[in-house]
Amino acid sequence: MKDYVASVVRQTIHEYLQSDHGSFGKHILVLLPESPASLNKNQVHELSMKYNVTLGISETDRQTEVHNIPVIDISRIGQNELKLLMEEIDILYVPNISHGFLAKLSLLIDDTKTIWVTLQMILEGKPVLLGDDLVRKRKGNIFLPKPSIEKKVQQYMKQLSSDGVHFCSTTQVEKKLRAMLTKEGTQRPLVLAKHMEELAKMGEKEAILPERSVVTPMAKDAARELGIAIKKEKKK
Fold this sequence. Notes:
6-stranded parallel β-sheet, 10 strands
């Protein structure tokens, strides 16, 4: 029964996101940070003219609406359903993150649905873009010592960048998204023997890989020895 319910939820979310609310096939989830007031509605509307945009809100943001853009209240969705949703999303964009959001994300403190979703997207290796207008380094006297808080911000951003997270200002979002999606379309994940060994340690019997993945001969041998079936996802 549980598997049946999950399959129904998966199909519902898939059909919802496949509906014609954008001119491109790529799906972008715009996830509101702690302060919905900082959302640039005009920017989101412009993105929706080029991409399939879905707005993710929480219970406290229910008054936030953008014309003709579908809204999902992530506070009302369980983690399993959120994972199904994230399978259908190509890229996550969180506008105007705060210092608190940046610190919690870096320290893996997932005490809000927004941070939890962002962390899951990073762990899945999917593109994540964070708006850094509120945490960007402020111009000041270069001869004065840097405040410790500024150093921490730079460390957090450097750490997340090494994990594949992208940052940009509000004015550069569309350009950055276009570059990220172009790069994503040309990348081919490389699957190694160590990946099969990690799956085996987790008790997995299947390795479901992106369609364009390159599986090394050693990875195939390891999968055969460990009893792991390799399957590739079909392109949407």
